[in-house]
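Table S5 (text form). Sequence records supplied for joint modeling of the four-component complex.
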Amino acid sequence: MAEIGVGVIGLGRIGAFHAESLRNRVAGARLVAAAVAPPDRERLLAVGAAPCALVDDVDALLATPGVDAIVVASPSSLHHEHILRVAAAGKPLFSEKPIADSVAQARDAVAAVRRAGVPFQIGFQRRFDPAYIRAREYIAAGSIGTVEMFRGITCDRIPPVEFLRTSGGLFWDLAIHDFDAARFLTGDEIAEVHAVGSIEVEPRLAEFDDVDYGIVTLRFASGALGVCQASWRAPYGYDIRAEVHGSLGKVVAEVDEKIPTRLYRDGGMHVERHDQFTERFREAYTAELQAFVDALQTGRAPSPDAADALRSVEISDAATRSRREGRWVRVGE
Amino acid sequence: MAEIGVGVIGLGRIGAFHAESLRNRVAGARLVAAAVAPPDRERLLAVGAAPCALVDDVDALLATPGVDAIVVASPSSLHHEHILRVAAAGKPLFSEKPIADSVAQARDAVAAVRRAGVPFQIGFQRRFDPAYIRAREYIAAGSIGTVEMFRGITCDRIPPVEFLRTSGGLFWDLAIHDFDAARFLTGDEIAEVHAVGSIEVEPRLAEFDDVDYGIVTLRFASGALGVCQASWRAPYGYDIRAEVHGSLGKVVAEVDEKIPTRLYRDGGMHVERHDQFTERFREAYTAELQAFVDALQTGRAPSPDAADALRSVEISDAATRSRREGRWVRVGE
Amino acid sequence: MAEIGVGVIGLGRIGAFHAESLRNRVAGARLVAAAVAPPDRERLLAVGAAPCALVDDVDALLATPGVDAIVVASPSSLHHEHILRVAAAGKPLFSEKPIADSVAQARDAVAAVRRAGVPFQIGFQRRFDPAYIRAREYIAAGSIGTVEMFRGITCDRIPPVEFLRTSGGLFWDLAIHDFDAARFLTGDEIAEVHAVGSIEVEPRLAEFDDVDYGIVTLRFASGALGVCQASWRAPYGYDIRAEVHGSLGKVVAEVDEKIPTRLYRDGGMHVERHDQFTERFREAYTAELQAFVDALQTGRAPSPDAADALRSVEISDAATRSRREGRWVRVGE
Amino acid sequence: MAEIGVGVIGLGRIGAFHAESLRNRVAGARLVAAAVAPPDRERLLAVGAAPCALVDDVDALLATPGVDAIVVASPSSLHHEHILRVAAAGKPLFSEKPIADSVAQARDAVAAVRRAGVPFQIGFQRRFDPAYIRAREYIAAGSIGTVEMFRGITCDRIPPVEFLRTSGGLFWDLAIHDFDAARFLTGDEIAEVHAVGSIEVEPRLAEFDDVDYGIVTLRFASGALGVCQASWRAPYGYDIRAEVHGSLGKVVAEVDEKIPTRLYRDGGMHVERHDQFTERFREAYTAELQAFVDALQTGRAPSPDAADALRSVEISDAATRSRREGRWVRVGE
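The corresponding structure-token record, covering 1332 residues in total, follows.
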């Protein structure tokens, strides 16, 4: 099968991580070039940290010979624009979440992708994590019977407030992973949400009506309940856990040890935990790109797809509105 | 210190359990007699299962020589009446939760206890469980910094629907333990609640507007958030977990093994779990009675007290109303 | 059933612990008196720590009215003498391990007990610990198939060297618990042993040819192998673990948490561990006395019995000789 | 840095695994060709499973253009011969363990490698496993103080008896990993060993004086003790655990979950375990090849090296002789 030449838009934290995966760990892919703004380009070249050829902008990247597909890893506020550009160029694309800043723009982006008929995959890496995959397999196999309740929690260190200012808020940026995980694990749709939030970590979030702790109650289409908790606070490391309760049992996915090495000292046992999501999901990030490349090579449609990308944004939007308006909001309302 | 003679009202599951503890495991206590309705009395006597002298009713129990204090373990719907009777007789009393069927009656019961000036303890045994005690100690010592979010979950096997019909519902009967645990662990007050429920297990609950799954979002007086999940579904055994997130860390209390014996077979590792709350909290049930007896012997006021009993009922009531009315309800509103 | 009046010989650490259990937690038992040497008696009385009437010596204890049975908790070097005295008085007795300083004296003690026909139980409390009981149940039920290998390890804090000087050494005092556990769990006999030791903790052990680390390879009568590790070093708390490998699986008994409360801080998860064996086996120590009292009340023979007591000493002796002579030693050789 | 062209000798289980790693996951390496015996070649080609060009024998592989370095993954009994051939050709080589069938041949192989001055790495992949690396880091940092006792255990499914017949036996083939891990973790040398074995799984092992269960007591140069247990029995999956006890604490490396997904059902909790060492050490196998390639590219000497390879064989030999002769054997005696 022909090798897929990949271009990356953005070499920030996640962009650089994807570039490195594509260069070293994704079979069948070739990292061709990356588009970075000139100041970043100078910085990368100065320290010898460019993983590949660097170009100035998206147009240059799309015009680079050998670029067969694009990974969109630009700042969230530019996702919409970049998806439109790549789709217009007729290139397959993998995009980080969220695909847009608003539901309207997200619909617009999805429509553009569909119109262009290009393969599209959204970056929900948990779907490629062995723990989530196995949990879903248990559930799909009936091991816990009928799904009756979901719970997800994600706690991460708070990013700089300037990043948060344009991120869409806690639900768009962080809880969105649990919203997607809820759909992935249960096989059910989130029908309506009720959200609440508080500010405990960063008072400046109040300036743009954001929160750093949030609790979102979910009602699934089946009538089952769920809850997502999210926070920009993880002093002990990146922390996520998913629980699905069913009529016959419960499945829990959680990593409590970074490394299976336990130190016994001073009257207790100590284990280290993952510090960053890039550690926790290191393999999943590679696996999702591998799946994208495999899909392109075999002609299968990538997954999770544009519909999943759109739904996650609709839920994030509903949760944000629910929190602001103090009422239940139907997803897609 | 003089031995405390104890009389028990009711020898159902928890009453019989308390009687057995008092007889065998509570230092300084003497189980004197129990009040049971005549049919139950005949049954107990027939099988030789009476743990002590049996009398017909509360009046007879209060009149039994040597009965210094009373344990109220009658059906929940009789707690209010029995508390009034014991208080009127001037006897110290330990009562199972909830103390009444309604907030009005609960206030009435608490007022009666205060008027009588009798020592009173409410049966929140988690406060005597080593896991909860240690979690509170960590929190009180500042190990997790400022409390920023709480989460409790309790899953138990569903009791007979006839029991549930008079139990006050899921929040009064089951979630009440997490409401109290939230207060105990955080040292904060639950100010308002937002609840939702669903029926997954027992369709007949709809007849009396009850649910078997519930999620209650909490807002504490400090502004911190919390969530309690409760369900009448525990196919793998009694299941509880408490998590408290703070500015410096997180504390989790959960028992995942009934017995620290692990069986490796068939490609995996298996551990057994507690089947019943009487297994999980066996020691805590003894410890709470021991604390009650110790308090009586030393003249200290027992704890948790009537105010805790009342608050838990007010939260349960607020959650029930929130669920039915679909809105935030202030506790004590 | 009539209450059993119990007298305790010795109120050192384990004697005081047993006395407290008998007074507060063992149903059907009444703690009548304890024999303690006059200086200890004065000390106990001075601080108000006498749990019962105190008498001067074993003869006085045996003559105390109401003393139906005896718990031997004197220093190990006196066990033999005290067992002979109690047996001669025709009283049932529970003795701490080891029953003697030498195999010859142990045989003598067992013969005396048998001659007197008195019920006898040896203090191997692990047989009453839920983890060991459940492990044995799994094995007896065939859950791991045929037993093929055993491994036990026990690490404890080092006692004062003066205590060790008369204790019989590491294998007599510490590893003896794993020797008995190996027999209890596997249902097999230890046929021969090969032992080695080293001194890492306390150089003065060399004065009396003792060691503080030891490894004993076992060969069972069935031909299966095993290994016991023991050390007087446990900086992180009392540490034991048993593993039994079989043709179909493996069973492991180990307590890794003192309390099921986990603290997440500073990049890791921390759990506390048991500090002392009296914490780890608190319930088992009560349960073994309860079993002894129950046996006396029902006329059943107590277990583990004199044969178990003797066998454990024979294995300890074989291990000690193996270590000193650098060769395999048959148990009972 | 120039890409390293790699040739692989042997495409059995581990050879095929290495070839796949080199092709897809090792940066800076290019899989050029593999030498396989003609019948295997036909089979691989027939099913389209050849990962690269196939040649008939080692000479052809060494003569293949672009082959800069060799991975020796032939049957153990051919390692010695292949190492000599590759060294004679002046190529850097990575060899699976053990490097020879006898200590004499191992010394011969190591001498040949040294004479040729070619870079050499031995395949002890545990040294590249995060759990073992972290354990060593803790120990090297003094977290457990002075090392006082080691314990390793490795249980695996039994290979075909015909493989075992030429494998050198349980200690050469399986326990050798723990011997090396003991050296790696403690930083100490194993000075002498005392071994015992039994046959529980495969009676035909008696035909060539091998065993399927073995226990090896170790004495390190420092005087500290250790024990390695090994068995060809792992009905619940591949099972390894390392424990190092020190004056200040203990470190344990063990993976108890294949995937951090826990299923609660039927009164218990279940987790899956790794089935094969290729699952457990999947990343470590890649990491060791990556380290080899990195060393070649940077001119550093690879590690673990020929001295480590030789020492592991000397220990395996000493253990085998100890078991057969029933005595302590000094390593290298």
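Note: The domain at 126-280+312-330 of chain B is CATH 3.30.360.10 (Dihydrodipicolinate Reductase; domain 2).
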